[in-house]
């Protein structure tokens, strides 16, 4: 689906992690279906868009903010945290230091987004380089659990789990929307809704019925 007008919800997602962990290559593989062996470092913030049908007839526009990992751009990238519905916390499986930086990235977001809710997914990238891996899966899963996130390992080079990583995050955002943890707001751009008013009322009624049946 290429037409920008055909979507019901727009979710803004921010890509976070140290420089050279592969944020841009993962996004390029997902959004454009290509892998570039060598990509120039992101300066400030780049933007990508992808469309996804998460259930029959329900189309989501994913708007990605691909942020620079270098410290000198941090003041620029921080300004994008608040208007994000989801965040990909990403590290390089062959780079131990990038894994140890994840808590810092998570903390920065949490300190900035209040009172809004952000959904996280932890991504260990470059899974094709198994012989060079410096982070065990169980250790990464433990960190993800402590951050209230799911963990998945990906490779932009081989396409392993690329679709799955963003599917996990998109569904988690939608579940937060359905449960009432997140909702469209005129003062917040993390989620935008194009559903007609009657459809929105139907969803709200379904939410109320779910709460009553608990």
From TrEMBL:
<protein>
    <submittedName>
        <fullName>Uncharacterized protein</fullName>
    </submittedName>
</protein>
